[in-house]
């Protein structure tokens, strides 16, 4: 994260990270095939380790909004990471594809839990499309992550009403 903050995504290299960590580049490449893989892994670990928002509301829409806001704001305070995550997850690295699948399944699970008995695969797919589009928009710099979280809420409410 220090290197990403200092050098930006375009300046980030696995070799720099290895040097900062005090390990050889070959060792770093054993774990991360590319900088995209490294950044995707950072995001995956943040998502997987972040607790689902506590929301015992009887309103499934409120629960879904809480999940979407939480995920959208995971990297909101770190603009370099936020932009890097967008770039990394759009890459074609097979290791990133694997993480993208894990991230997607985790988000599907959280949305399904939030919807509860109202869980519908088509609704979850629609929510995922809204979420992905919103994060790409944020990653492109069209809006802040806070603004994106607000737009996600409005969009989810429209879909779920």
What does this protein structure show overall?
This protein is an all-alpha fold and 161 residues long. The protein is built from 9 helices and no strands. The longest helix is centred in the middle third of the chain and has 22 residues. The termini are far apart.
Question: Could you give a quick summary of the protein structure above?
Answer:
This protein has 161 residues and is an all-alpha fold. The protein has helices spanning 2-11, 14-21, 25-31, 35-49, 60-72, 79-89, 94-115, 121-139, 145-160. The radius of gyration is 17 Å and the shape is elongated.
The protein's oligomeric status is single chain
The average pLDDT score comes to 92
Largest sheet: none
Q: What is the 3D shape? A: elongated
Secondary structure: helix percent = over 70%
Decide which structural class fits the backbone.
Answer: mainly alpha
Amount of beta strand? under 5%
Record field, number of beta strands: 0
Spans where pLDDT lies below 50 across 5 or more residues: none
**Terminus-to-terminus distance:** 40 Å
Our count of helices gives: 9
| Rg (C-alpha, Å) | 17 Å
């Amino acid at each position: 994260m220090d290197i990403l903050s200092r050098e930006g995504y375009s300046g980030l290299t696995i070799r720099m990270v290895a040097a900062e960590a005090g390990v050889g580049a070959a060792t770093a490449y054993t774990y991360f095939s590319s900088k995209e893989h490294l950044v995707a892994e950072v995001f995956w670990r943040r998502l997987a380790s972040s607790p689902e928002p506590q929301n015992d509301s009887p309103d499934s829409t409120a629960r879904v909004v809480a999940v979407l806001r939480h995920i959208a704001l995971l990297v909101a305070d770190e603009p370099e990471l936020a932009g890097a995550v967008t770039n990394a997850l759009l890459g074609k690295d097979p290791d990133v594809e694997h993480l993208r699948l894990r991230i997607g399944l985790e988000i599907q699970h959280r949305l399904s839990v939030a919807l509860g008995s109202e869980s519908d695969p088509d609704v979850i797919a629609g929510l995922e499309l809204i979420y992905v589009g919103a994060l790409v928009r944020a990653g492109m710099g069209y809006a802040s992550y806070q603004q994106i979280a607000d737009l996600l809420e409005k969009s989810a409410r429209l879909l779920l009403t």
